[in-house]
Amino acid sequence: MIIDTTEVQDINAFSRLESFKEFYGIIWMLVPILSLILGITIGVLVIVWLEREISAGIQQRIGPEYAGPLGILQALADGTKLIFKENILPSRGDTRLFSIGPSIAVISILLSYSVIPFSNHLVLSDLNIGVFLWIAISSIAPIGLLMSGYGSNNKYSFLGGLRAAAQSISYEIPLTLCVLSISLRVSNSSSTVDIVEAQSKYGFWGWNLWRQPIGFLVFLISSLAECERLPFDLPEAEEELVAGYQTEYSGIKFGLFYVASYLNLLVSSLFVTVLYLGGWNISIPYIFVPELFEINKVGRVFGTTIGIFITLAKTYLFLFISITTRWTLPRLRMDQLLNLGWKFLLPLSLGNLLLTTSSQLLSL
Question: Any stretches that span the bilayer, and where are they (predicted)?
Fold first, then answer.
C-alpha cells in the first residue's frame, strides 16, 4: 500500500491546527477568570489602604505615608513580608485541618464573585440561582474557620471557631430571608442580572432600597456580622481570645485569613449594590436626563466601562460606611450578638417576608 506524502503532511498539519485551537480555547476560557482575580486583588489592596487612611482620619493620625505615594503600597509590602515569614505548625495539632482551613475560607469566598454582574455584559456566570449560590458557598467559610480552630489544639482557637460557626448560622438566616423577599416580590428571579435589570426603569427611585427598606437594614447588619467586622468581630476578638482561631497561625496562612476577611467585605458590598442599589444602572430618573440612558447603545466597551465605574462607586460608598462603623462603635458581647440575630433580626426578616408575600398575593 502506497501512502502519499502530501496526504500525511496534510493530516499532520490538520492535527496541529486542532491542537492549537484546543489550546487557544483553554487560554481564552482562563482569561476572564484571571482578569477577575486580578481585579479582586487590586480591589482588596485599595480597601486595606482606604481602611488605614479612614481610621487614621477618624483617630486624628497620619496613617501610612512611606510605602509608595500616599502609602498606597503598604498593603503590598505587608503581604510580601507575610509570604517570607516562617509557617509554624502546632506540634500536637491536626496539621491537615490546620493547613486546609485558611484555603477553604478563601476559596469559598472567591467562588462567590462568579455570579456578580459588574456591568451589563460583564458577569462570569449568569445563573438562575445566582444569589442563593452565593449564600450556599459563603456557608462553607465558617467550616474552614472551625477546622482551623480545632486543628490548632488550642482552647482559645477552638472557642473562636465555635463563635464563628454560631455567628454565621445566626445571621445567615435573616440574610437569606431578605434575599428571598427580593426574589419573590421585586424581581421574580434569583439571577443577579435579572435583579439589577428590574431596578433599571425609574433610576434612583427604582432601587430595591425603597421597595424593601426593612430588608435593606437587616441585610446591612447581617452582612457586617457575616464579615466579622466590628461591632460583630467576636470570633477573633483579640482582647478576649488572643485573636481567636488565628492564634496559632503565622506567615502566609495568617495572611490568607486576613485576605479572606477583606474579600468577604468586598463581596458583601457588591451584593448590597446589586440587590438594593441598582447595580450598574445610572441613578438619575429617565424623565430628567433621557440621553444618559442611551450610553449602553453607543458602544459595548464604553457602556461596560461606565457600568463598572458606577458599580464600584456604589460599592465603595458602602465600604466607607462599613469602615466608619468599625472605628466608631464598640464591640458587642456574645449574648448581645446572638440576641440581636435570633430575637430581633430573625423576626424582623420573617415579618418582612410575610408582608412581601401578602402584597404579592393581593396584587394578583
Answer: 26-50, 97-116, 128-147, 256-278, 298-323, 344-362
pLDDT at 217 > cutoff 90: yes
- Tell which residue, 361, 353, 359, has the closest CA to residue 178: 353
Q: What is the CA radius of gyration of the chain?
A: 24
The yes-or-no verdict on residue 174 having pLDDT over 80 is yes
The DSSP letter of residue 68 is: S
Given phi > 0 = left and psi -120 to 50 = alpha, else beta, which region is 250? Answer: beta
**Following DSSP, what letter does each residue of 88-148 receive, concatenated?**
---TTS-HHHHHHHHHHHHHHHHHHGGG--SBTTB-S---TTHHHHHHHHHTTHHHHHHHH
- For 189, residues 6+ apart whose C-beta sits below 8 A from its C-beta are 128, 183, 195, 198
Q: Give the per-residue pLDDT at 285.
A: 57
Buried-exposed string 248-280: b where 16+ CB fall within 10 A, e elsewhere: bbeebbbbbbbbbbbbbbbbbbbbbbbbbbbbb
Q: Report the Cα 75 to chain-centroid distance in Å.
A: 19
Q: What is the per-residue pLDDT across 106-124, written as a single tens digit (0 to 9) for each?
A: 888 888 888 888 887 788 8
Q: Tell me, what's the pLDDT at 11?
A: 61
22: its cell numbers: 484546543
| Three-class SS state of 28 | helix
Residue 305 vs residues 122, 137, 175: alpha-carbon distances, Å: 10, 28, 30
* CB of 270 closer than 8 Å to CB of 40: no
More confident residue, 236 or 179: 179
Instruction: Please list, residue by residue across 62-78, b when 16 or more beta carbons sit within 10 angstroms of its beta carbon and e when fewer do.
Output: ebbeeeeeebbbbbeee
Q: Note the pLDDT of residue 13.
A: 59
pTM, whole model, 2 decimals? 0.85
Map residue 56 onto helix, strand or coil: helix
Percent above pLDDT 70 for the chain: 85
